[in-house]
Amino acid sequence: MSQEKTSAHTRIEEQRATRTAPPSLFKVLMHNDDYTTMEFVVEVLEGVFHKAATEAHRIMLTIHHEGTGVCGTFPHDIAETKVARVHRMARQAGFPLRCSLEEA
């Protein structure tokens, strides 16, 4: 009977040891350039990052004045997908808009 208790106790400890850590978060940064229009940047912020119009405008002005702005913080896979989507939209519209990732 004491062997059964030990076995059950061991199983619980094994389950605790296999917990996964929360995923690392990454900031998506958008970079200023001299060619991409402010309107397009706002459109991307609203469409890709689901920002409200006022917040998108504020982020766009930060990018314009400071050179970069944070579009959002996401797990790595989601952040990479959003960066790729921004780059694809920018290329289709003929703009050199760039985004990058930075660990949060």
Summarize the structure.
The chain is built from four helices and three strands; from the N terminus they run H-E-H-H-E-H-E.
Please describe the topology of this protein:
Layout: H1 2-17, E1 25-31, H2 38-47, H3 53-66, E2 68-75, H4 76-93, E3 98-103
Antiparallel strand pairs: 1-2, 1-3
Helix pairs in contact: 2-3
- Distance from N terminus to C terminus (CA atoms, Å) equals 51 Å
Instruction: State mean pLDDT (0 to 100 scale).
Output: 90
**Helix and strand sequence:** HEHHEHE
Structural class: alpha+beta
Rg: 22 Å
User: DSSP strand (E) fraction?
Assistant: 15-25%
Query: Strands of the biggest beta sheet: in what spatial order?
Result: 2-1-3
Comma- or semicolon-separated keywords:
Ribosomal Protein L30, Chain: A, 104 residues, single chain, elongated, 3-stranded antiparallel beta sheet, alpha+beta
Give an overview of the whole structure.
There is one protein chain. The chain is an alpha+beta fold. It has a single domain, classed as Ribosomal protein L7/L12, C-terminal domain/Adaptor protein ClpS (Ribosomal Protein L30, Chain: A). It is 56% helix and 20% strand. It contains 4 helices and 3 strands. A 3-stranded antiparallel beta sheet has the order 2-1-3. The mean pLDDT is 90.
